[in-house]
Each structure stands twice: as C-alpha cells, then as structure tokens.
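To whoever is covering the structure queue this week,

Two jobs came back overnight. Logging them here so there's a record in the thread.

Job A:
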Amino acid sequence: MNIGIPRPDSSAKDDLLKHIMSYIKRNFPKEALYSKFTELVIESIDDHSLQKVLDEPDIEADLKPIMKKAIKEQLGFTPYAKEVTIPPKTRADVVGYKRRYDIAEKGWWVFKEVERIPYYEFVGIELKTAKRSKDPLFRQASIYADYFDYSFTAITPYTMLKQEYEFINRFCKECERIGMGVVLLDARYPLGTIVPAKEGRPKERNRRYLTDQMGLKR
C-alpha cells in the first residue's frame, strides 16, 4: 500500500529518487553532487532558511490535513477527527477506518444461511518532524503494527536531513521488516512512498479496542 506520487504501476524508489534530485536541482547549485548534498546544505544554509526551502511545517499538526486527505482520496479510508490513544503510552496522530464484512455460513446442508459479519479495517499514521525525539520511533512502530491493518510513519525531508542517513536507513529497514510503511511529505503534499505498507493482522481484541475507542458502531 502506497501513499503519494508513486503510482501502482511505477517504482516507488525510482520516483522518490527523481523527486529528491528534482528538489536539489531547483534549490541548490547544479554543480552540487548528490553524495555531498547533506554536507553542502548544512555548511551553507542556516537552519531557518533550510526549513523554509524544504517546506518544513511550523508545527506537526499542519501535516494532519495532508495525510487525512491522502488516506481518504488514495486509500479509501474515512479519517477520524481526533488522535487515538494506543496502550501503553502511544497516540496515533492520524487514524482512518473502513467498514468491511466477513461472510460466515450457519446451519447444515439445505438449511445453511449466509451471514455478513461487520468489522472495521484501520490505518494509522505516525507524524514525524525534526522537533521530536527519534528514540521512541522504533517502539512506536511496533505498537502501530500490532493495532492497525495498515500503518505508516510520515516524515519530512528536513527530518531526514537532521536525523542523518544512518538512522533513517536503519528505521526504514525496521519498518519494512514489520510491515509499516514510510511516507515522505512536506507542508504542502505527500512526495512519495519510501517503504510500502504491508497488510497486517491485528488481534481481534486490538481491533475491538480501536472500534470502542473511536465510538464506532459494531
């Protein structure tokens, strides 16, 4: 499952690389080599200007309407109005839900009846800007994977730059391992999917918890 510019028939990694390279060409000297990009930016641009040129949001909440629009229009989920508390101490920044039905047969032979059993499918998104500590991310990723059918961490280009390649690469590999997606976005729109989200299998009690926590009709 992808969010953003990469289309279903395209390579997410190739599209993402094109966007990054396009960003460099638009905002930095043409002679700057990609391998020296981070060093060049940090040495030549003050932090405030860097946030501006990379469209870093003023506050994390500015990213919520962007992701709510994305999960509604691109994934078909209904955005929930509030953050959702997840045990033990995590809050999902953006949550969406979708009504689904399981088919069950009751009875025996000619007396069989088909019953539609309703349930909800959930998507959860953790928003990450450079202002927040990076340490809890690994723990939060595991919790999201336990509670949601699909989950994403949404990070900004400025966050990737400030947290450094080694951490981001390690975090993306961990997300890929547990099935959590990673989306790149700025203060205006999603730029692309770095790691696609895989469909998870939340335990029934966790699905019921989200249903009750959000006040959805069973």
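Job B:
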Amino acid sequence: MSAGEVVGLALTAGLVSGVVGAVLVAVITSQRHWDAQRHGRQIDAYAEWLAARLTLSRACESFVAAFRAIAAEPGDSAYFSLRTEEVRRARSQWCDAARQLDLAEAALLAWSTNRSIVERKVPSDRIGADALRQAINGDERDVDRLLQELRTADRLAIDYVRNATVDVDPQGRLSMWRGIISKAAAHIESIVNRWGARS
C-alpha cells in the first residue's frame, strides 16, 4: 500500500468515525432528554401516589371523627344539623380520596419502568370499612388502634416511595449507549491499526 492510500484510508476512517460519533451524540442527547422527562414523570407519579395515600389517611380520621360526633349528639340538639352536614362532607372527602388513590396507583404502575419496583408491589393495604365501623362504634381504644394502623401504613408508604425513587435510574440507558460508543470506537481503532500495519 502506498503512503497516499494509507493517508486516504486514515482520512476515510476518520470521516466515518466522525459521522458515527455525531450520530451517536445526537441519539444520546435525545435519549438523555427522553430519560430526564420519563424520570420526572416517575417521580411525579410516586409523589402523587404518596400524597393521595396520606390524604386518604386523613380522610379516614375525619370520617371516624364525624360519625362519632354525630352519634354522641342528641337528635334534638341545635347542632345536630351541623353534625349531619359534617358527616356528609367527611363521607364525600373519603370517597374522593379513595378515588384519587386509585388513579394515582394506576398512574404509578403505568409509569414505573423498573420491574423490581412493580414486583415489590405498591402497598395497597387500605383501611377497610370494617375497621372504620369498629372505630366509629367502639371505644377510645378502637379509635387509637385505627389511628395507629393509619400511622403505620403512612410510614410504610413513605419508606416505599423513598426506596422506589432511589431505584429510578435516569442514567441507565445512557450507560448502555456509552458502552456501545466505546465498543464502536475500539472497533474503528482496530481497523485503523490494521491498515497502518499493512502499510
């Protein structure tokens, strides 16, 4: 091979590697943008789920308090109509909070790309109607038991979100592309080295 051919091959290899590099940089940049958007949506989904979960806990407390208050209020009391309105409002808030939690949970599962998080399962053990009824009809110990269950469920939900958002990796695909680029660069370098050895 003449010196001119070697120079021509080296220039061609340089041009090809430059084009490949430019394409890969464009792909990585767009992928990074997509990953950042997806990461933001995942974090938002976790935050909305946690907020909905905590809102439902507060709604359960209000629900029980309103029903216990109306049960203690004499029917002929001047405050009975206010207590009735309070019960209606608490029931409506509880229903809305449960619906919002359903939607937030669905969004969380839809946006989660980490299989281990989905397999770990979203803590969905909600306080049931029987526990609410027992707290409404029972004594103070039943109310305290319900409040303790709600606090424990809240702590578990907070821990779940903290662990899940640590596992959200916006750099995962970027690392994959870095590996592809380094392999492509090594391959191009070996081609150039073989051309140089032939000359």
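Note for Job B: The radius of gyration is 30 Å.

Please reply-all if you pick these up so we don't duplicate work.
Q.
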